[in-house]
Write a structure and sequence with these properties.
The chain is of the alpha/beta class. It contains 13 helices and eight strands. Strand 5, helix 4 and strand 6 form a beta-alpha-beta unit. The N and C termini lie far apart (81 Å).
């Protein structure tokens, strides 16, 4: 019978349906662009450190010539780029509204940064951060008296080292920081097994495997010996094994006790399966003078300070990241970050 044109009425409805889809698509595109536009002036910058070039971003407030205060970002574990795949930008904007620029470099070997981050110790990372602070103090648009650090997770072993070595820092913000590498690893293992509903037998098996790995680390075993002993490497590489071997004795306690009264904000999440927040809070309270330490609890947040209900739903996490990225973070977190630095400048101090 061949093909026939639809009846006029049906064709009209089809056209209007197509128009509706296009309008909705244009609206969503506009919404996405608007939600992912930040009140910032971003500049690509480079730091020459130990013969290698680190590439990063300096994000200044969108108005005013400065000089601005500065927040230097110290990353957690993994191959993190300067923007943390745009995850940092809502934070940068919050600090900008408080009059602070933000500085973040891609880790060595990530993006256009040269080097290899898996070859670094925590002391190496601290020296690299100090180099970034020195670089920032040389800029006329940055107020060298108002430079602080922001770091998360693995940065917990880096931040106090930097604060001890640079007593001019205005503040430190430690988000979900680790204290002891080995204790954190055990806590994380059991917390994830509990979350996934593992049986007692499965937990015992996982702990025995962990004991075997710890014995290999104590004996400074090679990656080849690790593979021969453990069998399934579960994503472990030779470079990662070397990184763990170099850093698994990390403990922030002694460095925290040596911090010279620098105002510090400790940020803790209620759904953190990576870090034992009770231990972290106890260590920070014991190590730091009460007048210098402020603690913020976010009971609905995960380790990354994302809202727990959002993070555990793949579709909500994706939709929020695309259409409302500022709402990824748990309630009040962004505003509280800005308020902390504002209080330092207003003379209110740490609460």
């Amino acid at each position: 019978m061949g093909l026939r044109m639809p009846k006029r009425r049906g064709w009209r409805w089809t056209v209007w349906a197509l128009v509706g889809v296009l309008v909705a698509g244009a609206g969503l595109t506009g919404l996405t662009v608007w939600q992912n536009t930040y009140a910032l002036r971003e500049e690509t910058v480079a730091l020459r450190y130990e013969g290698k070039s680190l590439k990063g971003v300096l994000a200044r407030p969108d108005r005013g010539p400065g000089p601005f205060g500065l927040v230097v970002f110290v990353h957690g574990d993994g191959p993190v780029d300067a923007t943390h795949e745009t995850f940092y930008r809502p934070l940068w904007e919050a600090f900008a509204r408080a009059g602070y620029a933000s500085l973040s470099f891609s880790k060595p070997g990530v993006g256009d940064s040269e080097g290899a981050w898996l070859e670094q110790s925590m002391d190496d990372r601290a020296e690299e951060t100090l180099a970034a602070v020195r670089w920032a103090r040389s800029r006329p648009d940055i107020d060298g008296r108002r430079i602080g650090l922001w770091g998360a997770s693995q940065a917990g072993w880096v931040l106090p080292k930097v604060a001890v070595r640079d007593r001019r820092l205005q503040f430190v913000i430690a988000v979900s920081p680790a204290v002891n590498w080995l204790r954190q690893g055990r806590y994380n293992l059991l917390a994830e097994l509990d979350r996934d509903g593992a049986s007692d037998r499965e937990k015992e098996t996982a702990l025995r495997r962990r004991d075997v790995v710890l014995d290999l680390l104590r004996r400074r075993a090679s990656f080849a010996e690790y593979r021969a002993t453990v069998g399934d490497a579960e994503g472990m590489t030779a470079a990662r094994w070397a990184f763990i071997a170099k850093n698994h004795r990390s403990d922030a306690t002694a460095d925290l006790r040596a911090v010279p009264g620098t105002p510090m904000l400790l940020v803790l999440a209620g759904h953190d399966v990576n870090v034992d927040v009770a231990e972290t809070e106890a260590v920070y309270r014991e190590a730091l003078p009460g007048t210098s330490l402020s603690i913020a609890h976010y009971p609905n947040a995960t380790h990354s300070l994302v809202d727990h209900d959002v993070e555990r739903s793949d579709w909500r996490l994706t939709a929020t990241a695309i259409f409302a990225p500022r709402r990824l973070y748990t309630d009040h977190f962004l505003a509280d970050q800005a308020r902390f630095v504002e209080q330092l400048n207003s003379g209110e101090g740490v609460r």
